[in-house]
Amino acid sequence: MEKLPNVKASEDVLMLRGEQIKVINTWLDQTKLLFYAENPRIYSRVWVSDDEEPSQESIEQELSRAEHVREGLAKSIRHNGGLIEPVIVRKNVVLEGNSRLAAYRLLNNTLDKGRWRYIRARVLPTDLSDSL
Fold first, then answer.
1. Are 18 and 34 contacting, i.e. CB atoms less than 8 angstroms apart?
2. Which residues contact 112 (CB under 8 A, 6 or more apart)?
3. What CA–CA distance (Å, rounded) separates 35 from 31?
4. Sequence-distant (≥ 6) Cβ neighbours of residue 131 within 8 angstroms
5. Chain-centre distance of CA 132, in angstroms?
6. CA distance readout (Å), 33 to 15, 18, 69, 72, 117
7. Average pLDDT per run of 10 along the chain, which is 132 residues long?
8. In this structure, what DSSP letter does residue 11 have?
9. How many angstroms separate the CA atoms of 63 and 46, rounded?
10. CA 41, CA 85: separation in Å to the nearest integer?
């Protein structure tokens, strides 16, 4: 994972099902992150067949067209100069914050190109069990 140059990452703790999980707070290159296709909001919007996972491009297109991303999140992120709540990432997949990732990509592709390349993230350990 490529992080924002010259920014120190910091350790933190996230509570998951009553367990304290060590996470890293940092900035990641959002162009290298993946949407979590099994997220219920994504699943209900873009899955056509249970046999075939939607492409990252189709997820991004669908979320970018959503009013809450275009009119809500993108405007709020731009107004605030970034995220209030970071996305949660594990193995380059955004488990929490897929709409925020779509808003960042929308901003990066339409306004202030490059200004929105790096996104605030809390990175979970790669060895964290899927059940957590």
1. no
2. 78
3. 11
4. none
5. 18
6. 23, 27, 17, 22, 11
7. 68 90 94 88 67 85 91 92 93 94 92 84 90 74
8. E
9. 9
10. 18
- The answer for residues whose C-beta is within 8 angstroms of residue 38's C-beta and 6 or more apart is none
Partners of residue 47 on adjacent β-strands = none
Among the listed residues 16, 29, 12, 10, the one whose alpha carbon sits nearest the alpha carbon of residue 92: 29
Whether 108 contacts 116, CB under 8 Å = yes
Cα–Cα distance measured from residue 18 to residue 49, given in angstroms and rounded to the nearest whole number: 35
Distance (Å) of CA 43 to CA 53, 57, 85, 116? 9, 14, 23, 26
Predicted pLDDT at 132: 72
CA distance 116 to 107: 7
Q: Hey, what are 115's tokens?
A: 């200004």
Half-sphere exposure of 25 (CA within 13 A, CB side): 8
Residue 63 identity (one-letter amino acid)? L
Can you say how many angstroms the Cα of residue 108 is from the centroid of all Cα atoms in its chain? Answer: 14
93: nearest Cα among 27, 55, 37: 37
3-class SS at 87? strand
